[in-house]
Design goal:
Radius of gyration: 22 Å
Largest sheet: 7 strands, mixed
Number of strands: 11
Distance between the termini: 53 Å
Shape: globular
Helix content: 25-40%
Structural class: alpha/beta
Strand order of the largest sheet: 1-7-6-5-4-2-3
């Protein structure tokens, strides 16, 4: 199903699934029971829709608390994915940590209770191949701009038998068989019948140019080769970690091992606000992101309100890493509260 991004796909699923009779409270949930389960590390786009949908359906979301490294702590999967959970939603790769989540264990646990699984591939799909059938996931979402396609493009994967029973969220042109007089408003729309998927979820005129651009981005990524991409990004990540290790006060969030980061590294610099450091780097032609990364709930786990994040792609080079490390050293010297006025001016 074509959507404008992973966020739209996740909202479509959350709204549609919790409209279904099978997912409503039947029998009534016990005190403290939950209907959706998700790790604390999720992006707002895979966090807020499920919390809101579960609340509207009369339940609540079960949050898998992270351990020291940020991934679900030992025992959390078994404790939080239990018989009352109807949907388990989680990312393939954390957009803050760059770490691959234990998706196989999450899927296995959810399936043991016949809960549906939703995989957010926005961060991971540009760095590792995704085989939804081998994983056995029920739904997956992708954002095109993460896959070298245009902004405002993306797609939702779902097992056909599930998509056929999922009610549409949007109604309009090109997604219904039409209706007769019996379906007018006074009949509460009882005669409306949506087309089979994917058309039932693509109301109105679609952004065909974005879909074509997304297809080209996927061809470009596939043509580069996964083994070549893994080797290239792996070497760059090692050089990045080696350079960061020599910067006083720099703290990497998550695993200290470069091989456990897929395309993303987040960090803080002691005594320096992330926005100030991002501005310093921007003045030197280096783009990073600073802030809470649409996961303020997760950063609080690390006693943070903001962090810096650098993203690597197949277009990056060793020269990029060297420039970043040099600028970080300069930024640490100029912005640190311990630096002299002369150093700050320089």
């Amino acid at each position: 199903v074509f959507v404008k991004n992973a966020t739209e796909g996740l909202n479509l699923l959350a709204l549609g699934l919790f409209q279904e009779t099978a997912l409503k409270t039947s029998p009534a949930l016990p005190e403290g029971g939950g209907k959706a389960a998700l790790p604390l590390s999720e992006h707002h786009s895979n966090f807020l829709p499920w919390i809101r949908a579960a609340e509207k359906a009369g339940g609540k979301a079960e949050i898998l608390d992270p351990g020291e490294a940020g991934l679900p702590a030992p025992g959390e999967i078994e404790a939080k994915i239990w018989p009352w959970v109807r949907v388990a939603a989680f990312a393939l790769v954390s957009h803050v940590l760059g770490a691959r989540l234990p998706v196989e264990a999450l899927i296995r646990r959810a399936r043991s209770f016949k809960a549906l699984t939703v995989l957010d591939c926005a961060q991971g799909a540009a760095h590792i191949p995704v085989n939804v059938k081998e994983l056995g996931v029920d739904f997956a979402v992708f954002s095109g701009h993460k896959l070298y396609g245009p902004l405002g493009s993306g797609f939702l994967y779902g097992r056909r038998e599930l998509l056929e029973t999922l009610p549409p969220v949007f109604w309009g042109g090109n997604m219904t068989e039409g209706f007769g007089k019996e379906a007018f408003p006074e009949t509460s729309g009882g005669g409306l019948e949506a087309l089979p998927p994917p058309a039932r979820f693509e109301a109105g005129t679609q952004d065909t140019a974005a879909a074509v651009g997304l297809a080209e981005g996927l061809r470009f990524l596939a043509g580069f080769g996964w083994d070549r991409l893994r080797d290239r990004e792996g070497r760059l990540m090692e050089e990045l970690f080696e350079g960061m290790a020599g910067i006083p006060g720099l703290r990497i969030i998550g695993s200290p091992r470069p091989e456990e980061h897929l395309g993303v590294v987040s960090w803080t610099l002691e005594g320096v606000h992330p926005h100030d450091l991002a501005s310093f780097l921007d003045q030197r032609g280096i783009c990073i992101r600073a802030g809470h990364h649409c996961a303020p709930h997760f950063l609080r786990h690390f006693n943070l309100t903001a962090a810096c994040r650098v993203s690597l792609g197949l277009y990056n080079t060793r020269r990029d890493i060297a420039r970043l490390i040099k600028a970080l050293r300069e930024g640490a010297a100029a912005l640190s509260p311990k630096s002299s006025p002369a150093e700050a001016i320089g």
